[in-house]
Amino acid sequence: MTTALTFLAEEPLLLLFLLFGLGTALGAVRVAGIQVGPAAVLFCAIGLTALATVKDITLTVPAEVGTLGLVLFTYTVGVLSGPSFFAALRSGVRPVLTVIGVLAAAAVAATGVGRLLGLPSPEIAGTFAGALTNTPALAAASERAGGAAGPTVGYSIAYLFGVVGLLVSAAVTLRRRDTDGDGPSPVVNLTVRVERTDRPRIGDVEGWYGTKVACSRVRHGEAGRVLVADDDDSLHEGDLVTVVGPRDVVDRVAKDLGHRSSHTLVADRRHLDYRRITLSRSALAGRTLGELDLFEQFGAMVSRVRRGDVDMIADDDLVLQPGDRLRVIAPTARMKEVSTHLGDSVRGLSDINPLGLAVGLCLGVLLGLVTVPLPGGGFEIGAAAGTLLVGLVFGRLGRIGPVMTGVPVGAAAALSQFGMLAFLAYAGVKAGGSFVPAISSGLGWRIAVLGVVVTGVVAVVLPAALHRLHGLGATRVSGMLAGAQTQPAVLAFANERTSFDTRVALGYALVYPAAMIVKIVLAQLLVG
């Protein structure tokens, strides 16, 4: 063992990848249906480094590796969350403010209880980050503490109960999901027979319901051809029109226009066809759906956009990201032209867009150097918060002039995963040397007590506040718990229990970016 540890001390790159492999394997093990996940890399790094320290061997992972991993992780999280975050600010600000308030209360509790227990500020900040299972908050606290091991020691001890505590909270919350009254309707298409005589325009019909529905096909009369629906086209009595949208809204459209038809225009593919096409042409990514102008060029339209695992109703103002899969309806003879125009290449799913990535990371790191003045001093925003904020903006914009700022979901998820593993390995190795002395000195039990308090505040207060103050159903609340905890394990658990109900993902996306930013800021304040 000593020989192997000595060899690893001389080969930090080998050590890094060994920790990736060991941690990933351990994190995949299920205990009572629960997986530790990527955090196992941190625990493996701490354990291996602590063992080496006992044998007077020093294991290291270069600090630059940890910083690179950190900024990749936070930036890609921001890019992926940008569109949903800014949409949430318009439509769901009250639940977001509630989450922020509960996290602030948890920080106050951490300060008060931590001081009563005699814990130093870096350990309090690390315990706060671990109890709320937030790696960027740990990174920000470590950066603010000048690289001291205290935050990572607190994080590693408090993390496990942070995961378990929120899993228990989510399980208790989901016991009452049968009483939920806020379930969304699935996206469906329906052929409607028009009975109105006032000849409404298709564009006006879509406007009656905001951006919730889209008309994709229309047939005038019994003998007419199936055509792509045009906003300027009018619907006559007896026409058939295909409407796409949430089931409850589509049912309203059917009643407003006429009635459900026994015919289905989707099945008639003689002159009009449909297929999913991947947007991989870089010149089109970052532009709105309306700017593609598919109808004028090809007589085609897009009825839905699939981003990752989520289907969205097509809207002219939707900013497209590389890798989006567009459900295109076009004349059969022109479908190949549309496919060529959009790209339809697997590169759209994997191209990391080096220029946009470099610009975003540079701006994020520079923003992290900005100092925020506070009474008694102030603090730097930090690379973690800076790259997250820039990522949110870049994810929302999609394009700045000729520079595409978006990243395909698949590529962003891969970069995020790599960055998280690299930072956790670095942080664990750095903390491993101080872990054994901390446990043996009595510091460990005090950190554990503080971690239980901080996790308990969020696990108990947050679901109660979301339900009582905003009347949210248990399914959506479970997603918000996962988002507030910024914890994939809780999200996976809620998805599994609800058979991947879309309300879980919507709740998660609503609060995740705000929770991430607030935790990073609070962790730095706790250190200072």
What does this structure look like?
By secondary structure, the protein is an alpha+beta fold. Helices cover 60% and strands 13% of the residues. The chain has a domain at 187-347: Regulator of K+ conductance, C-terminal domain (Alpha-Beta Plaits, 2-Layer Sandwich). The protein is built from 21 helices and 15 strands. α5 crosses α21 (502-527). It is elongated and about 85 Å long. The two termini are 40 Å apart. The relative contact order is 0.20.
Radius of gyration from the alpha-carbon trace, in angstroms: 26 Å
Given the C-alpha coordinates, what overall shape results?
elongated
CATH topology of the domain at 187-347: Alpha-Beta Plaits
- Helix-residue proportion: 55-70%
Assembly state of the chains shown = single chain
> Would you identify the regions where 5 or more consecutive residues have pLDDT less than 50?
none
Structural class: alpha+beta
